[in-house]
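[09:14] KT: can someone run the structure on this one? pasting the chain below
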Amino acid sequence: MVAALVPPPQFDDATFETYRADPDYPSQQETKDLLIAFSRGGAPAERGGLFRRPKKAPEMKPGVYLDGGFGVGKTHLLASVYHAMPARRKYFGSFIEYTALVGALGYQKTVELFRGADLLCIDEFELDDPGDTMVMTRLLGELVPTGTKLAATSNTPPNALGEGRFAAQDFLREIHAMASSFETLRIDGTDYRQRAIDGHAIALDEATYARELADAAARGTVSDDDFSALIRHLASVHPSRYIRVIDGITTIGLRDVSQLEDQSAALRFVAFVDRAYDAQIPVRATGRPLDEVFAPEMLGGGYRKKYLRAISRLNALTHS
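[09:31] RB: done, structure tokens below
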């Protein structure tokens, strides 16, 4: 589990140079510049005039929090920090991976494991489980005094109207004991995953599904599962091990997709989608379009942000 705390394969080569800031949203370039400085150990210096030296800006806080909607490149920037920082010991994982590690090793052993680490990157910091949030806050609170730097992201809906686009206020409130350690960097933008597609997941007929899976099987390893059977199987596996469920798979096939009505099943599927997206595994499916897999009442509930992120990723994977 510790060895797996590295950026997902799709971000193996992520750098600040390959992050393409959208000129329509200046906050993207501003955040990139600040993170480059953070990776080097301080904030960028102010420019001086023609006959005076530039003023040295104060050092940044030990933690940075990337705040913005999903699809604006936060994970790319987080992985860029990981790759750019000249650190002997550094870790990159999702919130659920860190909390799963605490569950497996125990809190004190996890503290001992990370003590002395130079950098912890936490992707998709979850705020909807008070217990897990408190555990992570305590953990970070023990590491920062020893010199560990932190970088974190969380997700909010893109271009949401009237529902609080940014999550920084929620994040800082929930980790109140650690809030002063984080510099909040706001990133505007639209979901890059939707820029080149029509915004809807592709649902195939049976003949096309069979043909596409046969073609994919000629090039790699394909899964072919009834959607309901997959949902039942996910209930028997801890979410931290979903990455092993898809290990070695190059295309995921799902037959007879139906709308999920059970919240627990839906949240497990979200975690599965996150791991499939991290591994960039294409999805081929029949039945209901995957962007309609979550019941309407779920999209209006407390986990709305998770479901919208999963829909965005499912759309991209069915087009890949």
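[09:33] KT: thanks! The chain is about 40% helix and 15% strand.
[09:34] RB: yep, looked fine to me
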